[in-house]
Write a structure and sequence with these properties.
It contains 27 helices and 22 strands. It is an alpha+beta fold. The two termini are 38 Å apart.
Length: 802
């Protein structure tokens, strides 16, 4: 009996090649999209869970409250870790981390390296990392010891054993000559799904040795440049420990907090929550977004739903053509149970073929999707994902086979043999499913348009400075660059393609650091608060083409005594107008008698997801810079870059030259948004293909059902265009209904996404109209192919047996 079922199923597949191909291919695309998205979602949800003790690890985070504002930050001060272990028995151990970038040199190889992490000796006792070479117990014990990841070991030492060898790293050395670091271990590259990314792991004792004030200064409790992780003992109550932290802060920071009128409160953040649930100031790496995970998971479900709807719609529609077959079988004695088993087996066969094809699509496109998202999809054939896809496939097959199995098998044989027409209920269900498909597709189309508009807005928004034709060089910690910057600057300015050169201690891309300041508001009342700071050379505002609203620019003698603030600082500090800000006292830890000399128009120094905040600009001291900014002429760009390279080599032959354009650096801030847009567009495109396949199949079936009606109309003089309109109008009505339902849904979803941006577009009606119009065009083109073919057919062929 089973072999008979399979023969019938295969014959049906071969007989109806078009419908079979549409069914199998459409479901395969849907399953493949769902599988790839599910793999990405599972990867995002699995961040940091590879650590054996991940449920007991928490991060200490702080809230800073001043008289002007308050904010949350991921960084805390160094002494807090030791104090927490000492004072609270529920804290088993603590690990401090601080990340840096530096030039690393070995023999004739030198590179600018990011993700150089310094960690306490107990790092390996808390986190689940192993060494392939070296001793975990001692590898981070001594100052100036460093562990390499496998990829870094191969980069610098090839196949040699690097343990015991020395790297020169230009970091923590004020003379800029570099310091020798002894390699004490090699470890596998850390898993990709960790919120802490590193290529080198140095001992925290290095920092404390190079910066002795970090252990002795009375202000060390307020030097917030470290990430503090705690391993809690088994059974510890997180909330109970957190409730003790206000008293802890008062005990160690209370006197100084009162003196500064700046107050700290601490909380504990579970390790598992950091990647998707944290967006604090100074995160150790860019975190993910739970909203993005939800959006892509929803898209995956939507694409799969469209494919399953196609599958069930076409399967149930084709069942009508098998009504007489069912009637004859029942006359010959086939039972209802046999018919149900036959239909379910056929559905399972189709679904199984779709699943095999889906796995092939996933494997072929895995590297493409990995490159698009920047995340390796290593788990696409994991047990959990395989079970999910198998269950989904079986469910789709079962649902698509159950309707014809139960419905057709319940009719009396002679009624089926004589005539069988679609019931109004079955037609309504099919139309409803088509509407649902296009609701999803139109919603995704609108989302694509709004994502593209937001990214265009970001690219074109005035940032308060001219980002174009601005070349940035890294100083990279070399002492010869510090010593020779004056002559290097003069040499650059001799070229006609260079109009300005400025230096700064940081870069206004990706955020700035904070200062504690004391000043007065508009009425003369003292204010103590925190403010972003940027230290620059006196040419900086001209080179960046920032607009001064009041006061004057810097002169070389202003070092430590003068500040220029932005418009937001004027408003937050209660000074009213830019003119009123001039002359206001501005006391920081470095200067007691400084004042405001100017107000600059607001400029963006962080992503447009964040609002502009108060910032103060001051002159950096001699040799205190990390970036060199050069304004170049676009007309002589390549020639000018060659000149800069030659001049650098002449002045700093031992120093590594690295440069980039400011607009490129700014674009990298929005890498996650660009990835979001690309992935969104890809799966929208695939959803439209799947929806169009289903619509094509249903249009083919509807045309086939009305072939005699079309023949009669053609004999009676109906035009081709009239027949096309007749066969198309019902489907276009469904698309119109889908638009009505999709527009409010798309508005709600995309408005939620745009809420993450402090600076965003207004949602325009034309995006909705364009998406709706495109859906109509796709429907018309899809249906018209079958309608035109039916209208052009010879009516004699349709009526020859009547």
């Amino acid at each position: 009996m089973l072999s008979n079922y399979l023969k019938v199923a295969l014959r049906n597949l071969a007989r109806h090649k078009l419908y079979s191909a549409i069914n199998i291919f459409g479901l395969a695309i849907g399953l493949a999209c769902f599988g790839l998205i599910a793999a990405w979602v599972m990867n995002e949800l699995g961040y940091d869970r590879f650590h054996e003790n991940h449920e007991r690890i928490v991060r200490l985070v702080g809230r800073v409250t001043t008289e002007a504002d308050s904010f949350d930050q991921a960084v805390t001060s160094s002494p807090l870790a030791e104090a927490l272990v000492r004072d609270y028995p529920e804290v088993e151990r603590a690990v401090r981390l601080t990340d840096r970038g530096a030039i690393v040199r070995y023999e004739d190889k030198q590179f600018d390296e990011d993700n150089l992490l310094f960690a306490d000796e107990s790092f390996f006792d808390m986190f689940s990392y192993d060494l392939t070479l070296g001793d975990k117990g001692t590898a981070l014990r001594d100052p100036y010891s460093i562990i390499l990841t496998q990829s870094m070991s191969e980069k610098y030492f090839g196949s040699e054993n690097p343990v015991g060898k020395t790297l020169t790293i230009f970091l923590f050395d004020p003379d800029g000559k570099g310091a020798p670091y002894k390699v004490t271990g090699v470890m596998p590259d850390p898993p990709q799904n960790s919120h802490v990314v590193f290529n080198f792991l140095g001992s925290f004792n290095t920092y404390e040795t190079a910066e002795p004030a970090s252990r002795t200064s009375e202000w060390r409790w307020f030097w917030n440049g470290f990430y503090t992780y705690l391993l809690l003992k088994e059974g510890s109550d997180l909330e109970a420990l957190e409730a003790k932290l206000p008293e802890f802060a008062e005990r160690y920071l209370g006197e100084k907090m009162t003196q500064m009128r700046m107050f700290y409160t601490f909380s504990l953040q579970p390790l598992d929550d950091i990647y998707l649930h944290s967006d604090l100031r100074y995160e150790i790496q860019v975190t993910g977004s739970l909203d993005t995970v939800v959006i892509f998971a929803t898209i995956g479900v939507f694409v799969l739903a469209i494919a399953c709807i196609n599958y069930m719609n076409l399967a149930t529609a084709r069942a009508l053509g098998r009504a007489k077959e069912v009637g004859i079988r029942k006359i010959l004695g086939v039972t209802k149970a046999d018919l149900i088993r036959q239909f379910l087996l056929e559905a399972a066969l189709f679904a199984g073929l779709s699943l095999v094809l889906a796995f092939l699509f996933m494997e072929l496109n895995r590297s493409f999707v990995s490159g698009l998202t920047g995340k390796p999809l290593e788990n696409i054939f994991s047990g959990a994902l395989l079970a999910l896809l198998l269950g989904t496939t079986l469910l789709a097959g079962f649902c698509s086979g159950l309707y014809p199995a139960l419905f057709l098998s319940s009719f009396k044989p002679m009624m089926i043999v004589k005539a069988w027409k679609s019931t109004s209920a079955s037609v309504f269900v099919r139309k409803g499913l088509v509407v649902l498909q296009f609701v999803v597709s139109i919603t995704l189309l609108i989302g694509t348009g709004l994502v593209w508009n937001q990214m265009e807005y970001i690219r074109s928004k005035d940032l308060g400075f001219n980002k174009e034709e601005l070349l940035v060089l890294n100083q990279n910690g070399f002492s010869e660059v510090n010593a020779g910057i004056g002559s290097f600057r003069e040499a650059l300015l001799s070229h006609s393609g260079i109009s300005g050169v400025a230096t700064s201690r940081g870069l206004i891309v990706g955020g700035l650091s904070n200062w504690h300041i004391e000043t007065v508001d508009g009425s003369g009342k003292p204010i103590s608060t925190s403010i972003y700071q940027h230290q620059v050379s006196f040419e900086y505002l001209d080179v960046y083409q920032m607009k001064l609203l009041a006061g004057r620019q810097f002169v070389p003698t202003d070092t430590g005594s003068a500040y220029i603030v932005n418009e937001t600082a004027v408003n937050v500090l209660g000074w009213g107008t830019p003119e009123n800000a001039l002359g206001k006292p501005f006391r920081t830890g470095d200067s007691n008698n400084a004042q405001v000399i100017g107000v600059v128009r607001d400029f963006h120094f962080s992503s447009l997801e964040n609002p502009i905040e108060p910032v103060a600009v001051s002159l950096a001291g001699p040799g205190q810079f990390s970036r060199i900014s050069i304004r170049v002429a676009a007309s002589q760009l390549q020639e000018t870059i060659m000149f800069i390279k030659q001049t650098w080599q002449e002045h700093f032959p031992r120093a590594l030259l690295q440069y980039s354009f400011m607009n490129e650096r700014l674009d990298r801030q929005y890498e996650s948004e660009k990835i979001f847009g690309k992935v969104f567009l890809l799966f929208v495109f695939l959803s439209l293909i799947v929806a169009s396949l289903g619509l094509f199949g249903l249009a083919s079936f509807a045309t086939e059902q009305r072939v005699k009606e079309v023949g009669i109309r053609r004999v009676l003089g109906a035009s081709v265009s009239g027949v096309v309109r007749l066969l198309s109008k019902d489907f276009l009505k469904l698309v119109a209904v889908a638009n009505i339902l999709a527009w409010p849904l798309a508005y709600y979803v995309m408005n939620r996404w745009l809420e993450d941006f402090a600076y965003r577009i207004e949602i325009s009606w034309w995006v909705f109209a364009l998406a709706g119009g495109l859906a109509f065009v796709i429907a018309i083109l899809t249906v018209s192919v079958q309608a035109i073919r039916a209208a052009l057919a010879n009516p004699v062929e349709a009526l020859r047996y009547e």
